[in-house]
Structures are given as C-alpha cells and as structure tokens.
Amino acid sequence: MTTQPDGNNPFDRNGEILLQAKGITKGFPGVWEHLILDHIDFDVRAGEVHTLLGENGAGKTVIANILSGYYQKTAGEIWINGQSVTLNSPLDGLRHGIAMVHQELMLVPTFTVAENIMLGLQAPAFSFPRRKVEDHIRQLSSRYGLKVDPKTRVQALSAGEQQRVEIMKVLFHEPNVLLLDEPTSLLTP
User: Fold this and answer.
1) Are residues 81 and 137 in the same domain?
2) Interhelix angle for 130-144 vs 159-171, to 10°?
3) From the CA atom positions of the chain, what is the Rg in Å?
4) For the chain, which has fewer Cβ within 10 Å, the N-terminal or C-terminal residue?
5) How confident is the model at residue 130 (pLDDT cuts 50, 70, 90)?
6) Is the pLDDT of residue 1 over 60?
7) In this structure, what CATH number is given to the domain that contains residue 75?
C-alpha cells in the first residue's frame, strides 16, 4: 500500500531525526560479562522504516524495550527530538512519543476492542466517552488500513485480528516512533 503525506500523519515530519541511540549497552544481573547489547548507535528519522535482523538472542527485543521504556539501559544515551531523555517506564516512552507493540498479546479476551484500548488510557476509562473512543478507533482503522470493529469482543477475533488490536492500542496514542516486535508472527490469517 502506498500513501501520500496528508499532513495528519504523525510519522510524516520531513525526515527530521526523532530518535537517537548513542552507545546503548545492556547487561542483565549475572550476565553483565556477556553483554546483550554492546554500544549500539543508530538514528531514526521521520518517515523511515528500519528493520533489525538477527538470530534469536541477538538483542532485537531488548533494544526495542529500552527505547520504549520497558527496560533500563546499563549505559548510553537516548535522544528524542534533539534532547537527552531518561525513560524509566513505558509511560515515559509514550510521553516522549515512542510506543511499542509486543510480540505477545496483552488483551482481555472478554472485553471489546474499545474496552481493551481504553485500558491503556491515562485517566480512568470511565472518563472517556465510549462513543468517542470507538469513533477514534474507526478513524485510525481507516487511516492505517487495519480493519478493526471497536465493538467486537476480542475472544471472537482471530490471532491476526488480535495482533491488529495490539497495534491499534499503540496507534491510539499517536506516537512519533512505533516499534514493532516481530509484528508478523501473528498477522497471517
């Protein structure tokens, strides 16, 4: 699918550097002498798509978890929009416009698509009018070509459709940088 910039796409910011990883290093307790990541550097510019390739255990998921605030780096710097930041949690990542879709599904099967998305919102879910949330889900679904009915219960969806809901949960926050951890593992029908 080819799309043209429409001015409403949060990923279209004329190639400016959104995210920089400088010397990112990660070791876990007990394995520090065997670094998972050893001084990783790269830039992410608006409009770019990057793919990290490597065998199992190479650290692809670890770097994504660090850049989105799920893991703490052992050393190095993360720069977002030209400023050095510390990401102590996924909420910090979201506040800085970085969001991650994990390989594993994190959905409540008996909830609807909209209810699952509302679980990730900052204020209590009851403070968001359900109709507005459902309308926004429909808009995002149309914009990104992810067919998702906000009123459908997750348990009625195929594994691939549930992965779309995971992606939609993240897109609902309109991040500037979207990290996908093996997104195609469940997307095939």
Assistant:
1) no
2) 110
3) 17
4) N
5) confident
6) no
7) 3.40.50.300
| 149, pLDDT greater than 70 | yes
Query: pLDDT higher for 101 or 183?
Result: 101
Domain span holding position 144: 113-185
Greater confidence, 85 or 27?
85
Closest by CA to 167, choosing from 135, 145, 189, is 145
Q: Letter for the amino acid at 70?
A: Y
Which residues neighbour 101 within 8 Å (Cβ) at sequence distance 6 or greater? Answer: 163, 166, 167, 169, 170, 178, 179, 180, 181, 183
Phi and psi at residue 178, to the nearest 5°: -115, 120
Interatomic CA distance for residues 152 and 157, integer angstroms: 8
pLDDT at 140: 93
79 & 125 share domain: no
